[in-house]
Amino acid sequence: MAALAWLLIPLIGVLVAVTWARWAGRTRSTADGASLAHYERFRTAMQPGEQPPLRLDKGEADESGATDAEPV
Questions:
Q1: Residue 60's closest CA among 49, 52, 68, 51?
Q2: Which residues contact 72 (CB under 8 A, 6 or more apart)?
Q3: How far is Cα 72 from Cα 68, in angstroms, rounded to an integer?
Q4: Could you read off the pLDDT of 13-70 as tens digits, one per residue?
Q5: Can you give 13-30 as a three-state secondary structure string?
Q6: 36-59 b/e with 16+ CB inside 10 Å = b?
Q7: Cα 31 to chain center, whole Å?
Q8: Where is the composition biased (Acidic residues) (predicted)?
Q9: What's the pTM?
């Protein structure tokens, strides 16, 4: 019985190592597209003398009441 316990210790270690390696090597998504677009619009808005592009989300109206503006 003691020999079986000594064989289980490395087996459990291998299983932990394999689990950690799979978790560490997983493919992570980088959802930077939206945040980079927001930063670019912020940077453009902060430039003196320049107008930021108009961007309306679906269902929002501008000053004239139009709701079909194309997103930038």
A1: 68
A2: 53, 54, 55
A3: 12
A4: 999 999 999 999 998 877 777 788 888 888 888 887 766 566 666 655 555 555 554 5
A5: HHHHHHHHHHHHCCCCCC
A6: eeeeeeeeeeeeeeeeeeeeeeee
A7: 3
A8: 62-72
A9: 0.40
Q: Please give the single-letter amino acid code of residue 20.
A: W
- In sequence order, the 6+-apart residues with CB closer than 8 A to the CB of 52 are 41, 44, 45
The amino acid at residue 19 is T
Other C-beta atoms within 10 Å of 29: how many? 5
Residue type at position 67: T
